[in-house]
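[job 0412] stage=fold_complex status=start
inputs:
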Amino acid sequence: MMEAGTSEGLVAEGISLAFGGLHVLNDVSLTLRPGVITGLIGPNGAGKTSLFNCLTGLYHGQRGRSSFAGTLLNGLGPAQRAACGITRSFQNLAMCPDLSLLENVLVGLTLKRRSGWFSAFVPTPALRAEQKEVERRAMAALSELGIASAAHDKPSDLPPGTLRLAEIARAIVCEPRAILLDEPAAGLNAVETRDLMRALKRLMRPDLVLLVVEHDMDLIMELCEQIYVLNFGQMIASGTPAEIRAHPDVIRVYLGDDADD
Amino acid sequence: MAVSDLAQTSKAELSVRGGRVDAARLSMLALVAILLLAPLLAGGFLLYSLSLCFANALAVLSVSMLVRYGGEVSIGHSFFVALGAYAVAIVEHRLGLSIVVSLPLAILLGAGAGFVFAFPSRRLSGIYLAVATMALALALPEILIGFEKFTGGFEGLYIAQDLIPGIPKALQRYYVALGVLVIVCLALAHFRKSAQGLALLMAQAQPRAAEAMGITRSWARISIFTLSAALASLAGALTGFASSTVSPNSFTFFSGVFLLVGSVVSLNRLSLPAALVGGAFITLVPTYLAQAGDWVPILYGVALVVVTLVANAGDLRRFLPRGRGR
Ligand SMILES: Nc1ncnc2c1ncn2[C@@H]1O[C@H](COP(=O)(O)OP(=O)(O)O)[C@@H](O)[C@H]1O
Ligand SMILES: [Mg+2]
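[job 0412] stage=fold_complex status=done
writing structure:
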């Protein structure tokens, strides 16, 4: 039932999404190929987060289909898509305030853990071993993003930049097959943004799907090989950074009324 | 795991270096030592009251666990407590078996009842869920009196069997209740660090993020209700054992409200000292209130209104001091 070409990567075709009379996405399609960092840009309110939520199962478009590595995703909720190997970060930081940074990242490994209910209440040697292993992986993810020193702090004691990076650490810790990052650089200073971009490039593997949503054009131009541009719920352009830079519609959106975005 | 872990409800405390951890460990050991030695000094009524206090502390913990890990309040947990208490009484009367059998049975029954209740109500939350739990508490007296043949009706049932024949009854009640309370506190400290514990805390604070990590809301709701009800039922079994009797009087609609108030009084904490404060509250306050005579229904009513308003506001933890809870 799957045509050639659509069985690879994360594919969305003809997604339309409306809230009541508000049309947020109109017939949007995109293909996220493995091994390529894909960017999604557009002014605030363009529908980037909404598209993202459609891909991760939080929203369900009225029309369209999406698939991942040949598996149809339609009808699957966020947890089921997570089980398919798709992880994400949230534009509005979504850390649990009761947990340390390390523990917040540990939750990202929930689906990988095998310990049962018995060992949730009674310490067992098998649990000890698992706990050690998952903590090692979580620390490695935090180190990867340069925030290992904050591992034992509570989110309320940390600056937004660190939390943003922790959000990404939590998305990458389970070694997912697709990572979707919603405005990962928001709230980061120039140095942190540099580090983040370096970390994302290091992360890239030939079989990994990586989508970065941003409204900062320069960052996306430097990071991504493939770029999609969304405006008022419509995909107005897609291509390489050079093609996007030269695209008349993109120039109009970014240099016209919405230039301040 | 050491006894000191009783004091540790959060990882942050564990990571505090040097003096403070040792102080916490020592004070916790001292508390447990005092409780272990208390029967040498105290006798009779005090010992009996302390045994009840331990059992009630467990019931308060069951509600606090629901608040902490589920972010929900229940005013019907007396239902699950009664389930455990009557399990002990009925197993003794019908089968002639002691709490060796009925304690594990109470846990299983509580878990089952919690699951059965949670499944249809898994999409409710806040005030709606609280009202649904209220239905449990309201139905309880009717059930107890309706199934008179098993429950002994208004009279209730006596629980006479010893755990270990030959040891004085007062000591048995005391040490069994204390032992279970300490074990449960240790288990809860361990749970805080477990995969399931972390997942529940995340599901409560950030449901969308939790879903994106594979933790569904219905899993979280059903899990925490099953656990909390199992603990409540265990608490009930010990209440029955510690007081040697069960009757509908101990499980009125207001005992459910009281459990919630006890949980609020202990700041919804899951440590041994907090549980003891909540347990003492539940054990003592109704006794004092009884002297208030005609005022009792009014005081209960006020407590109910306050608790309902808090539940309606959706978040008991706002009342916690900063830093400990959230
Ligand atoms: N749950 C929702 N209910 C109603 N409107 C929504 C919802 N989510 C997004 N929108 C609307 O969709 C539009 C696009 O929002 P969003 O996807 O967040 O844009 P972006 O991420 O590109 O800034 C906005 O007008 C927003 O108000
Ligand atoms: Mg957005």
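[job 0412] summary: Residues A 48-49, 91 surround magnesium ion (ligand 2) (CB under 6 Å).
[job 0412] exit 0
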